[in-house]
Amino acid sequence: MRFWPTIILLSSLLNCATYWKNRRNDLLDVVTLGAETPTYGAAVKIGPLPIGLLFQGGESELGKKDLGRGYGVRGGGIGGYHSQQLVYTFLGGESFHSGEPIKDEKGKWMVDEKKIPLTDNDRYNQKSYKMRYFSFFNDPVKDRKKRKKQAFQRELTMDLVRQTGKTEFLVYLPKEDEKPFGYPPGFLWNLEVIGGLYGGARVGFNFGEAMDFLLGFTTLDMYDDDVEGKEKQTFPGFPFPGALTPEEEAPTED
């Protein structure tokens, strides 16, 4: 019995450490302050809407968009990151990711369905993005229909689970697209100023992430980015079983 107070204390300290790690990460999401190169020109950006003339990044060889580096506080991390951006009046696009991308056996970056490089850090993957500014205005009908269909299927599946109590129905739950336009939800509330002549600087403040940081003290997670201490969600039935061979399908006699 004398060991129980020690066990409870250690458990509390562990939970407390996880809590404060998440608060630290949320705080880093609020502010952007980085030195970047190569950067030419200047621009102001409110969410996905820019104004200015700016070129950042480039290619070391044809088709290899590997230039554009920065160091500082950006995307919830402190350190080096990859950044490319083009602003022509109010058009253009940009990409960003922190950390070192995972490479395949050929040495190429592994990317997700949005062509965003993947890293070993789940939180960095959440905050990375690749988008065109025009996509904020251009939302094709087929994409809207696809999202509505997925939302209906998601609600129907969850209703079946609630009514029957059978979690097996979760295998029909469609994968939620966390970045339908190529950027995370908090991106919409970001204010940034960037400028330079080869070497440049980026300064920003994210009002949405500031709210997420404040609400985080009550353990509310507005952007579902408190990954510390959180297990990856898994559903029964995954991965789906492979197709049976004719021999396996044939009935057997006991």
What is the strand and helix layout of this fold?
Elements lengths: L3 H27 E16 L2 E8 L12 E6 L2 E13 L1 E8 L23 H6 L1 E4 L8 H24 L25 E17 H10 L29 H4 L5
Antiparallel strand pairs: 1-2, 1-3, 1-7, 2-4, 3-4, 4-5, 5-6
Helix pairs in contact: 1-4
Rg calc? 23 Å
Q: State the helix count.
A: 5
Largest sheet data:
7 strands, antiparallel
Structural class: alpha+beta
Determine the N-to-C terminus distance. Answer: 54 Å
Number of extended strands: 7
Helix content: 25-40%
List low-pLDDT spans.
Answer: 233-254
Beta fraction of the residues? 25-35%
Describe this structure in words.
This protein is an alpha+beta fold and about 250 residues long. Among the domains are: about 30-135 and about 180-205, no CATH class; about 140-180. It has helices spanning about 5-30, 120-125, 140-165, 205-215, 245-250, and strands at about 30-45, 50-55, 70-75, 75-90, 90-100, 130, 190-205. Helix 1 runs antiparallel to helix 4. The longest helix has 27 residues, at about 5-30. About 20% of the residues are buried. The model is unreliable at about 235-254 (pLDDT under 50).
Could you give a quick summary of the protein structure above?
Residues 234-254 are annotated as: Disordered. The protein is 28% helix and 28% strand.
